[in-house]
Specification:
The chain is of the alpha+beta class. Helices cover 43% and strands 15% of the residues. It has 7 helices and 10 strands. The strands form 4 sheets. The protein has a 3-stranded antiparallel β-sheet with strand order 1-5-4, with helices on one face. Strands 6-10-8 form a 3-stranded antiparallel β-sheet. The chain starts with a helix and ends with a strand.
């Protein structure tokens, strides 16, 4: 988590740090709902590169000129992202976009402090400042790949989604309701 925190500190739009690509690549996967990837998928890494340049204005340079995301760089990124707990290796060069549940649980413990409860939108804001570049979907849902980790933490009775205060309802994208998820939930409560 310390490495991700250090990357998040440098990931400031307009003043991107040298290694912001680590979090930007991941943000693209979450935003575009990519739940499975192959490290040598040229269409994917070219789409990420274009998005980073055009939408995020991230234009890394070296002494030789502009840096373009290519297969060797993307393969190395998948190894690093796997090590950091952002994705999980399935087989060979195939990965599932699934953040490490223990890392997410620890981030929730830190974000909630003694209160052990945080509005989901506040947690997303906390993640952006401290760990990951993540946004709610246009429907105010937690992106499906990240939602799957939260859902599993609920299933394991480590967290629950509750209605607390007057924050707007936030749902887990493509996740069925279950015990531990109140109907109009807007907050996360840490149980363990």
């Amino acid at each position: 988590m310390t490495a991700l925190h250090n990357l998040a500190i440098e990931a400031t739009p307009g003043e991107w740090g040298k290694q912001s690509v680590v979090l930007l690549n991941y943000q693209y996967l979450l935003q575009e709902d990519i739940q499975h990837l192959h490290a040598s998928d040229q269409v994917l890494y070219e789409a990420i590169d274009k998005w980073e340049h055009e939408q995020r204005e991230y234009r890394p340079r070296s002494q030789q000129g502009p840096i373009t995301l290519n297969e060797p760089k993307f393969v190395n990124w998948t190894r690093l992202a796997d090590f950091l707990g952002l994705i999980e290796k399935a087989t060979g060069r195939e990965y599932v976009v699934y953040p490490d549940p223990e890392m997410i649980l620890e981030s929730l413990r830190i974000a909630t402090g003694d209160e052990r409860r945080i509005a989901i939108q506040e947690y997303i804001d906390w993640l952006q400042e401290n760990l990951l570049l993540i946004d709610l979907t246009g429907e105010r849902d937690v992106p499906a790949p990240f939602a799957r980790t939260l859902y599993n933490l609920i299933r394991e009775e480590k967290i629950k989604l509750v209605e607390y205060g007057d924050a707007g309802v936030v749902r887990l994208d493509r996740s069925p309701r279950r015990s531990g998820m109140e109907k109009d939930a807007n907050s996360i409560e840490v149980i363990v």
